[in-house]
Amino acid sequence: MRRVTFDLDVLRTYVLGIELGSFARAADRLGRSTSAVSSQLKKLEDQAGTPLLHKAGRGLAMTEAGETLLGYARRMLELNDEAAAAIRGAELEGWVRLGLQEDFGEGLLQEVLGQFARAHPKVRVEVRIARNAELLERVTSGRLDLALAWAGNQDTPHTERLGEVPLCWIGAADRDIPFPTGEPWPLVALEAPCLLRTAATNALDSAGIPWRVAITSPSLAGIWAGVSAGLGVTVRTPIGLPPGLRLMNADELGMPQLPHLPLMLHRSDDVLAGAAARLAEILRAEVMTLITADAVPRTKASPLAYS
User: Which residues on neighbouring strands pair with residue 267, listed in sequence order?
Assistant: First the structure.
């Protein structure tokens, strides 16, 4: 059997095109022409020995082989970049301060800090888990170097949009939906002001559906506990959904559709350096993987745009 050695540069173009939803945008990001990207994709299919993309309307979509390769490509690039960072930044020292929403406090935080610590063992990382308003205030005042937060009415001077995630109705997996006929829908929500609480009430008001706040909690843990107990429903993203809860089908249940929520990376400075810059790179890559993964469902299938 012929031994295949994939070209990492070609794999990087492939992964970036999938994540951006457009190989034309990937070409712009990489500073290459679309014809050069086309040649790379042809080379990759030759190396794979099978089609990785197929026509879908006016764009391209992955074949089954293409989906399989995507997962391996991400892992190969992650290991390559980690090795390169470890060699270049072995002597990187200092400290960096990171802020995250509670939604990212488990899976994403563990992955990001694990990668960073392996590559830069001499750097100390301080993490603050908090809500949007506090995170943005700390970035603006210089008490955080980086913060991953949902887009809302507030902003900071140095902000980067990483993508968007759908908002979903969430209920208990093993309980009937608590919607008594003719009575207001019971909501479980964080204390106001809260972006997701406002999104839920606005959607219900627009649909003419009465509602009441059954449980108010200062923390996400309280939200999950109230919903698991069957005391109401909540609105969150699919990220970090714990066992025992489920995404509810809005169409089947007559629930109003919800918007997508942009995810932003806030920086204390326009140009980061040293440990903060490296942590931002890892965080950006992991977020892109997270929001393009199967864990974040799409409301409609959308083929990749090639041009």
Answer: 146, 158
Provide the 3-class DSSP secondary structure of residue 53: strand
Q: Which two tokens stand for residue 260?
A: 């997508």
Residue 206, classified by CB atoms within 10 Å of its CB into exposed (0-12), middle (13-18) or buried (19+), is exposed
**E strand or H helix at 185, and its extent?**
strand 185-190
Q: What is the pLDDT of residues 127-150, one digit of tens each?
A: 999 988 899 999 999 999 999 999
**R_g of the chain computed on alpha carbons:** 22
The residues, ordered by sequence, that sit 6+ positions from 255 with a Cβ below 8 Å of its Cβ are 169, 248
Q: Which helix (H) or strand (E) holds 297?
A: none
Sign of the torsion angle spanned by Cα atoms 47, 58, 13, 265: negative
**In terms of Cα–Cα distance, which of 173, 181, 196, 2 is closest to 103?**
196
User: What H or E segment, with its residue span, contains residue 39?
Assistant: helix 34-48
**Most distant CA atoms of the chain, gap in Å:** 67
Pinpoint the alpha helices (H) of 99-167: 107-119, 132-140
Q: Which residue has the tokens 């994709």?
A: 41
For residue 298, is pLDDT > 60? no
CA distance 144 to 135: 8
Neighbours of 108 (CB within 10 A): 20
Torsion sign (Cα): 84, 86, 92, 98: positive
